[in-house]
Amino acid sequence: MKTLHTFPTLELNDDLKLKGFRVYEAALCQTGHSMFGRRHFYKIVLSTGKTVITYTDRSSVELDGVCLYFANPHIPYSVDILSGEPGGYACIFTENFIKPLERSEILLQSPLFKADGNPAFRLTEQQRVKITGIFESMIAEQATNYVYKADLLRNYIQLIVHEALRMQPEDFSIHYRNASTRITNQFLDLLERQFPIESITSPLMLKTAQDYANQLAVHVNYLNRAVKEETGKSTTIHIADRVTTEATVLLQHTDWSVAEIAYALGFEYPNYFSNFFKKMTGNIPKAYRTR
């Protein structure tokens, strides 16, 4: 019996390292539990049967029937497959694979990127047929030698996202078990919405834990305590990690000077940014860009 690969096998991991993308059919599902944790890939799944996805050890969403759900590497989660039926597809892809599309507004507003959104959708028969067709097209394209295959696969991902955004997921809601879970998800969503940085003239506005606490109308100590409790990382570390990720993107994919990137990311002086970047990555910005 085949098992729905909730997490990549060694073969899938090899494909992710080499190509950054893998799509596969899960012909049959088995019941089972995946360990709670953070993954290094995005995932879109067309599932059948009954599944419970748990986020940050506190909030959960139940899927029953034919469903489409999304997972991203920023949010820790676990999956419990309670019952399975024939059929199902999944695609997984890395941050680097999706980078050419990351600045698309449609992706930024999609379930792939939202930390405090609804990542699960029950499908009608018409929707199931349509999404199944997209997955089958991806599987067929994956096997070709077409030189622009990666671009086409990204377009298929966008098609699935568009279909998800058409749906009204009234059947699902994330149930927060306490206020800490709710405020943590609001913080993570607010953090993600600060990016990408599109212009040097529109720099990052929220830079500190206090800035985010003010926006969320909570005391900074409460925010720090909740985020640490739910994620194991401090608010400041989450902000620093996300700023570092954006810095690497700007260094790799723009012709902005290091000074311009520093100002865009909210640093008062370029040397402050250089010191921060070296502390976070082990490289100075110029050396990272050259590499």
From TrEMBL:
Matches recorded under Pfam families: HTH_18 (PF12833)
The record ties this protein, via Gene3D superfamilies, to: Homeodomain-like
> SUPFAM superfamilies per the record?
Homeodomain-like (SSF46689)
Say yes or no: keyword DNA-binding present.
yes
The answer, when asked if Transcription regulation is one of the entry's keywords, is yes
Q: Which UniProt keywords apply?
A: DNA-binding, Transcription, Transcription regulation
Ranges where the HTH araC/xylS-type domain occurs: 185-291
Q: GO terms for molecular function, please?
A: DNA-binding transcription factor activity; sequence-specific DNA binding
Task: Give the superkingdom in one word.
Answer: Bacteria
Q: Which organism is it from?
A: Xanthocytophaga flava
Q: Which SMART domains match?
A: HTH_ARAC
Q: What is this protein called?
A: AraC family transcriptional regulator
